[in-house]
UniProtKB/TrEMBL annotation:
InterPro entries: KsgA/Erm (IPR001737), rRNA_Ade_diMease-like_C (IPR023165), rRNA_Ade_Mease_Trfase_CS (IPR020596), rRNA_Ade_methylase_Trfase_N (IPR020598), rRNA_adenine_dimethylase (IPR011530), SAM-dependent_MTases_sf (IPR029063). Specifically dimethylates two adjacent adenosines (A1518 and A1519) in the loop of a conserved hairpin near the 3'-end of 16S rRNA in the 30S particle. May play a critical role in biogenesis of 30S subunits. Residues 38-214 form the Ribosomal RNA adenine methylase transferase N-terminal domain. Its main location: cytoplasm. One of its GO terms (molecular function) is 16S rRNA (adenine(1518)-N(6)/adenine(1519)-N(6))-dimethyltransferase activity. The lineage of its organism: Bacteria, Bacillati, Bacillota, Bacilli, Lactobacillales. The gene is rsmA. This is Ribosomal RNA small subunit methyltransferase A. Pfam families: RrnaAD. CDD domains: AdoMet_MTases. The keyword Transcription does not apply. It catalyses: adenosine(2085) in 23S rRNA + 2 S-adenosyl-L-methionine = N(6)-dimethyladenosine(2085) in 23S rRNA + 2 S-adenosyl-L-homocysteine + 2 H(+); adenosine(1518)/adenosine(1519) in 16S rRNA + 4 S-adenosyl-L-methionine = N(6)-dimethyladenosine(1518)/N(6)-dimethyladenosine(1519) in 16S rRNA + 4 S-adenosyl-L-homocysteine + 4 H(+).
Length: 294
């Protein structure tokens, strides 16, 4: 494929924005990347090939999209802002392998649209510079969409990236780390300074790379219940597991006996804090609570 001039240089971005009289909408998390090297690094981290089916959220004026398109894989981009559709028709015209859909990603049936758009079979890879006001909902929407996602290479505010990739025993570790790491292996790839964007956001950003686990990290009997137990253990971070569990499930004798039996059965000290438990321990605990019934 012919290499076209990068969209994301500061001067070309400025030119495109001017040509279309585009004004940024803060409410849509519109911070565009204007550093071609960073975009190249994101695409390289995603490790794309022509066999891939690539899903992007929020293409903006196509800064990252063109780097995805250059892999020769099939690209499907969801953009909520109608004003950007005509810009993308223009900037993406050299790339027939890109399809832009004007939809809110959170309302879109991503699985069905992917089946309609992607002609060829192939691994599904999500790559995006996410709108920061809805980072977590988007991640959860995609993880629970029923799509068989092979990997996700996504940019977000650094603080959220730290929480997603956190390990037990750290301040950043919580129910979000577990919700994501239950499905995927999570690694922080690299940090991006605020100066790489126009307009500049208030915080630094980070790219994380998530890859599908070949084996589930833990076999849970009931996923909803597993997530309920996990969330309840972090309700008040400074409290012990016992305090959080009894606050959530009840303090009556029957409930306490049920909780005590399971904690003992799986060898977890009730005086520990939720943040010290691994995903496996949460899995064992929720399975035991499920089997022992109240
Ligand atoms: N990919 C571009 C870049 O890297 O320069 C733009 C990234 S910008 C951080 C986020 C983009 O997501 C914007 O284009 C914004 O309009 C779009 N967006 C915001 N909310 C969205 C939603 N709910 N569904 C789809 N796109 C959304």
């Amino acid at each position: 494929m012919t290499e076209y001039k990068d969209i994301a240089t500061p001067s070309r971005t400025k030119e495109i924005l001017k040509q279309y009289g585009f004004s940024f909408k803060k409410s849509l998390g519109q911070n565009f990347l204007t550093e071609p090297n960073i975009l190249r690094n994101i695409a390289a981290t995603a490790n794309l090939s022509e066999e891939d089916r690539i899903i992007e959220i929020g293409p903006g004026i196509g800064a990252l999209t063109e780097h995805l398109a250059r892999s020769n894989g099939q690209v499907l981009s969801f953009e909520i802002d109608q004003r950007l559709i005509e810009v993308l028709e223009d900037t993406m015209s050299p790339y027939p392998n890109v399809t832009v859909v004007n939809e809110d990603i959170l309302k879109a049936d991503v699985k069905q649209i992917s089946e309609e758009v992607f002609k060829e079979e192939g691994p599904i890879k999500v790559v995006a510079n996410l709108p920061y006001y809805i980072t977590t909902p988007i991640m959860m929407h995609l993880l629970m969409s029923g799509l068989d996602v092979e990997s996700m290479t996504v940019m977000m505010q650094k603080e959220v990236a730290d929480r997603i990739t956190a390990v037990p025993g750290t301040k950043a570790y919580g129910s979000l780390s577990i919700a994501v790491q239950y499905y995927m292996e999570a690694k922080l790839a690299f940090i991006v300074p605020k100066t790489a964007f126009v307009p500049q956001p208030n915080v630094d950003s980070a790219i994380i790379h998530l890859s599908k686990r070949s084996e589930p990290v833990v076999n849970v009997i009931d996923e909803d219940f597993f997530f309920t137990v996990t969330k309840s253990a972090f309700t008040q971070r400074r409290k012990t597991l016992w305090n959080n569990l009894t606050s959530h499930f009840g303090k009556d004798e029957k409930t306490k006996a049920w909780l005590e039996t399971s904690l003992e059965e799986v060898g977890i000290d009730p005086k520990r804090r939720g943040e010290t438990l691994s995903i496996q321990e949460f899995g064992k605990l929720s399975n035991s609570l499920m089997t022992n019934k109240k």
